[in-house]
Amino acid sequence: MKLQTALDKLKEKGYKRTKQRERMLEIFIEQDQYIAAKEILRQFQQDFPGVSYDTIYRNLYLLTDVEILEATELGGEKHFRLGCETHGHHHHFICTDCGKTKSIHFCPMAEIEENLSGYQIENHKFEIYGKCPQCS
């Protein structure tokens, strides 16, 4: 996702463009991987020394709610990344070392639904965690 696309999406949803939100998006665009909130805070404080952890989290969750960022949990901690450019239903492999992702264009839900006869599934999230070729 490009910076202007993300900023346009924020505007569409009725949110203001701020220097802090713009810088946060730039960090995600530069790194193109899942990043822990504490790492965002560390990088963010270089430009905004007085920023609080609450401000970081508030903006991370806002950007997730408007579907600019995606969130997952790695090692018991929330990590965020820019929304995936892949369109349509898909899942991800996530490297537990570097946070890079690879889209998976296969969904196991048909097989899983066979084992949940009588259950009403409302949604699902399927992620695979491990080491990418560069980290293994």
UniProtKB/TrEMBL annotation:
Claim: Transcription is one of the keywords in the record: yes
Superkingdom as given in the UniProt entry: Bacteria
A Pfam family hit: FUR
Coiled-coil blocks: none
Family: Belongs to the Fur family.
Protein's UniProt name: Transcriptional repressor
UniProt source species: Halobacillus salinarum
Location within or outside the cell: Cytoplasm
Alphabetically ordered keywords of this record: Cytoplasm, DNA-binding, Repressor, Transcription, Transcription regulation, Zinc
Entry-linked Gene3D superfamilies: 3.30.1490.190, Winged helix-like DNA-binding domain superfamily/Winged helix DNA-binding domain
Upper lineage: Bacteria, Bacillati, Bacillota, Bacilli, Bacillales
InterPro entries, alphabetized: FUR (IPR002481), Fur_C (IPR043135), WH-like_DNA-bd_sf (IPR036388), WH_DNA-bd_sf (IPR036390)
